[in-house]
Write a structure and sequence with these properties.
Two copies of one chain form a homodimer. Chain A contains 15 helices and 13 strands. The first copy, chain A, is of the alpha/beta class. The first copy, chain A, has a six-stranded parallel beta sheet, sandwiched between helices. In chain A, helix 9 packs parallel to helix 11. At the A-B interface, helix 4, helix 5, helix 6, strand 2 and helix 7 of A face helix 4, helix 5, helix 6, strand 2 and helix 7 of B. Chain A binds a DNA duplex through helix 2 and helix 4.
DNA sequence: GGCACAAATCGAATCGATTCGATTCGATCC
DNA sequence: GGATCGAATCGAATCGATTCGATTTGTGCC
């Protein structure tokens, strides 16, 4: 009868009549141990109800847990709602899973509890995805901890590998497309510059206080083509917020209404589309709408959003590979992935130019 | 100058001139240590570049990692696409986060790598959500490892707390609603009975080989009202699969076409709606469509899906509370949460009965 | 001034494995 | 028959903390 205390490797070894080291080798599947011995160990384990080496103790000894923390923006709920983020996560798991690495989801930019939690949870490495704001305390903590970190579209940090995309060029290309269609009065909808729940037109000082590089890059792409244009910041990257922005921008007299709205994400663009529909505006006849991301939004069909397509899954895979590199002691290089414009059914000639 | 090896609590304690035990207390924020002493320890830590106790070592000692594994069905990607699953996850995090517990996502029903991974990753507890099939090897492994497990809508297992919903009654209620509307020829679209990529009409033997209790419960709800009806099984719970099922069921001569389709999830129902649209069928004039879940699908607007609403977030919170109970040594009780019917715009009188 | 008591600190055991270098034991070779 | 070699196994150190009971120090009281 097995004793009442949980069995340990040592007790199993004792029962099998071998040393703990041999038992350990047996469980590790080392070829340096006889098949017969291995069997004896397994039998003993069975008898004692021992399910294999304790993961914690093993992790401590070999200094590796098999867990990679992934920080996704804002609340987890929002990240889950964002097809782009999901594809990214999927790309990450795709590469990490075969290596037996689990994905620990952490809400980025979170408050105290998350900080504490971060300090207590064993992590081999971390991926800062999208959410990383400049000077994020979580990031600082990880660095002090000497946890390898990979940044995805986050702040540029000395010594941290950065997986980036060419947002600016892509946005500029899309903006150029709109300019070629005759659009002159355009507006843009930006993702949050800070996570303080603010929404509204972006003032110069608000912009100066922004914390997220992605937002700036995509803004710059528009500016490259149109110069400064009205930018409406939303409180978070979800459809409803896009709709609010859409109403704010489009529910004005026609002569002051933008003929094209460039949203910084497809979710926001979808919201703008909804707002347009609610206001009785036809797309693209009355207003053109464009997004960013190009993740598949099946529910938009048959509408095809004009957007900048980014390889989100490849971004995830690249980030995951960078993590594996770090864990293997190799220093990964920074990567900037290409993006490309997809012209859909939501952009068309500017109404003005048609009349002209 | 700090030595080249990573600083440890012991080295910090030595520099501060206290014992390791005191230093430990200091970092734990114990009131049993003088503010002055604590400060001295922190200063020493700073000097050595020590970021706080090693999470792994600490976890080993106190036998707790602060990580709860959550198994979500099939591939992570699909789970991410399912608003219901997402709300569930959100509910879980909502309760767990304040307790400093991180959520480790694991793909349920996965192959070998996931098994290995599971055996190596330190976990305090696990939540088996939706995906749990009867006799899942992952579940068996967790039980052998004596990891506390909470099952959500999974198999009924001796000794494992079960968080369930009243699918059967809810589905029956919805089916009754359709019967009251005069529908006599109905069909149902089921989620996968096994994860082997099969799709098509469910045969008796296929049904007998099914592994997921949820599917049976919802089938039973339909049977309660209509008796056996044609059931089309999809390969996975996504919109596209629902559309395929919709085509298979609806693309037939009108006199053999079901006047109502009950899908086992809103995602599948959305697919059926798309199929109906593609086939030029009006909803609900030509065919009524109903779903299950009631998570908000903003993109369906202005259509409102007739469905059974389940409290997914509350389900998640309940599961998370059960986990906390288990971790605190309390034995949680099984819970069955109520569901309720929501009549939307996708169900209406049966075409036959209108003519009659 | 001596005693009791509380507060602060310390020592040592413990959590449960992994791993490296050393040791044993046959078998092979000359 | 003894030296050599390789395979299998073993011992002991180590990973880095936490925690409990014991010890020291300081304070209040009679």
């Amino acid at each position: 009868m097995p004793s009442h205390t949980r069995p340990t490797l040592a007790s199993v070894a004792a029962l099998a009549g071998v040393s703990p080291s041999t038992a350990s080798l047996a469980f590790a599947g080392s070829s340096r141990v006889t098949a017969e011995t291995r069997q004896r160990v397994f039998t003993a384990a069975q008898e004692l109800g021992y399910a294999g080496p304790d993961p914690l103790a093993a992790s401590l000894r070999r200094r590796r847990t098999g867990v990679v923390g992934t920080f996704v923006g804002e609340r987890l709920l929002y990240a889950f709602r964002d097809p782009e983020a999901i594809q990214l996560l999927d790309g990450i798991t795709e590469v990490l899973s075969p290596h037996g690495v689990g994905l620990l989801l952490l809400a980025g930019d979170a408050g105290r509890p998350a900080q504490e939690q971060l300090a207590r949870i064993p992590l081999d490495a971390a991926i800062f995805a999208t959410c990383g704001m400049a000077g994020d305390p979580a990031l600082a903590l990880l660095q002090r901890r000497a946890v390898p970190v990979v940044v995805v579209e986050g702040p540029v940090m000395e010594g941290l590998p950065l997986i980036d995309i060419d947002d600016r060029r892509g946005t500029a290309e899309l903006a150029g497309h709109l300019r070629d269609l005759g659009h002159r009065r355009v507006a843009t909808v930006t993702m949050p510059l800070r996570l303080d729940g603010t929404r509204g037109l972006v003032s110069a000082e608000r912009e100066a206080a922004g914390m997220y590089r992605v937002v700036f890059k995509r803004l710059a792409g528009v500016t490259d083509v149109f110069g400064k244009v009205p930018a409406f910041e939303v409180a978070s990257n979800v459809v409803d917020e896009g709709a609010r922005a859409g109403h704010a921008l489009l529910d004005v007299p026609a002569d002051r209404r933008p003929t094209a709205v460039l949203a910084q994400s497809d979710l926001l663009a979808a919201g703008v589309l909804r707002a347009a529909a609610e206001l009785g505006l036809r797309v693209p006849e009355d207003v053109s709408v464009a997004g960013f991301d190009g993740a598949d939004l099946p529910w938009l069909r048959p509408t095809v959003l004009s957007t900048v397509v980014q390889p989100s899954d490849e971004k995830g895979r690249t980030a995951a590979r960078a993590v594996l590199d770090l864990l293997a002691g190799r220093q990964p290089t920074d990567v900037t992935l290409p993006v490309w414009m997809r012209v859909g059914t939501t952009t068309g000639p500017a109404p003005d130019s048609v009349q002209a």
